[in-house]
Specification:
Layout lengths: L3 H11 L1 H20 L6 E7 L9 E10 L4 H67 L5 H35 L23 H11 L1 H22 L5 E10 L5 E9 L8 H66 L5 H33 L5 H8 L1
Antiparallel strand pairs: 1-2, 2-3, 3-4
Helix pairs in contact: 1-3, 2-3, 3-4, 3-6, 3-8, 5-7, 6-7, 7-8
């Protein structure tokens, strides 16, 4: 028997997309190191006045080093560090997407599993009813119409069983793939479909979503990175210091000659204004994207909680009124049938109504479980998956 938590754990440990996302984090971390390195020095051979008065002139070596100014390397590191944060949050999103897919596939398997139990139970009653009515028709105690109706109901239910079996096969293959397996041979624990009490404070849940959503964290990290990009572009016009030191041996005098050169670029033609303004525009873009993500999360939260509360209300009605009514109707019809006061079709209709109500209850448990799954996985894939899994 496979439990939900076991399925999620297996999927997270076997998913190659998660491994790829983990590698992306390592890549970004290494880039932080790389962009904060100072330029390498240059060493070389230097000669001057060669051939002057038939002499070798001045022969020697030089060492040059560019010194980065304006805090550019630090700012490059800050920009890239936000890339690490984004990659880490995207890894979390990938984990949640895998978990969401597993949970939805698991719920579908559990629902079809329980649905088949109910439909097969109904099929047993329908087949028995068709045989009984057929015998009553031959004995002249029932009409041909009743026989045709019982056979029609049995056939329709058999078709529903076949459809559910196909759905179950698809759901089991999806779950097996998510677990990194070829097939799923074991049954799943249907305890996720048991009734539970809901006590939801929307604003409290919204506060938790704002604090924990990796989608919002990605958008916030992108905004933070854009601020550092502005500062980096503003630092770009600060000229780097170009230095060179040399030492030469004068062949004529045998004296050592030392040389020093210092230079900076003059930002008189390019002050990087275009790049600075572009970075500022990117900051506004990411600011609006943060707001867009917040609105999207809010809409998904309200939709999900609405589905959860709707299922709870309907389940409360079924458990409080309809289930007792359907059970009472079945028991009354069974008693009347035993006394000869009701036909077998009356009994069949009562049985069918009771099982159909159980199927409706199962659908509501499915709706509730899907909504809970979306809340547990930070609303990842909530909107995209709901229409497919209902």
């Amino acid at each position: 028997m496979l439990a939900m938590d076991q399925a999620v754990s297996l999927a997270l440990s076997n998913n190659p997309a998660i491994r790829a996302a983990e590698t992306s984090v390592i890549r970004e971390q290494n880039l932080v190191y790389q962009v904060t390195r100072n330029p390498n020095p240059t060493v070389g051979y230097l000669a001057s006045e060669v051939g002057n008065e038939g002499q070798a002139g001045q022969q020697g070596v030089f060492l040059s080093q560019d010194i980065v100014r304006g805090g550019k390397l630090c700012l490059d590191g800050q920009v890239q560090q936000r890339g690490v944060s984004i990659a880490a949050h995207e890894l979390q999103i990938r984990r949640l997407k895998v978990e969401a897919d597993v949970r939805l596939a698991f719920i579908q398997v559990a629902v079809t599993q329980e649905r088949l139990i109910l439909l097969n139970r109904l099929q047993t009653s329908l087949d028995r009813a068709a045989g009984t009515v057929e015998r009553l028709v031959k004995a002249g105690e029932s009409s041909l119409s009743a026989s045709l109706q019982s056979r029609l109901e049995a056939r329709r239910n058999a078709m529903q069983i076949q459809l559910t079996e196909n759905q179950s096969g698809v759901a089991r293959r999806k779950l097996a793939t998510a677990l990194g397996r070829d097939t799923l041979d074991q049954s799943v624990a249907a305890t996720i479909l048991l009734p539970r009490e809901s006590d939801i404070d929307i604003e409290q849940v919204w506060t938790e979503v704002l604090a924990t959503s990796p989608e919002l964290a990605v958008a916030a990290s992108q905004l933070d990175r854009s601020h550092y990009k502005v500062r980096r572009e503003q630092a770009e016009p600060v000229p780097d210091l170009q230095t060179q030191w040399s030492i030469q041996q004068d062949a004529a005098t045998h004296y050592a000659v030392f040389g020093i050169q210092l230079g900076v670029a003059l930002p008189v033609r390019d002050d990087n204004t275009g790049a600075i303004n572009a970075a500022r525009a990117d900051t506004w873009r990411t600011h609006h994207e943060v707001e867009a993500v917040q609105r999207s999360l809010r809409q998904r939260l309200l939709t999900t909680i609405g589905q959860l509360l709707q299922a709870d209300r309907q389940l409360k009605t079924i458990k409080g009124e309809l289930e007792a009514l359907a059970r009472r109707n079945l028991m009354t019809t069974q008693r009347a049938f035993s006394l000869g006061e009701a036909t077998y079709l009356d009994l069949l209709n009562a049985q069918r109504a009771y099982i159909r109500l159980s199927l409706d209850t199962l659908d509501l448990y499915q709706q509730r479980s899907i909504a809970e799954s979306h809340l547990q996985t930070a609303l990842v894939n909530a909107v995209e998956s709901t229409s497919d899994d209902r």
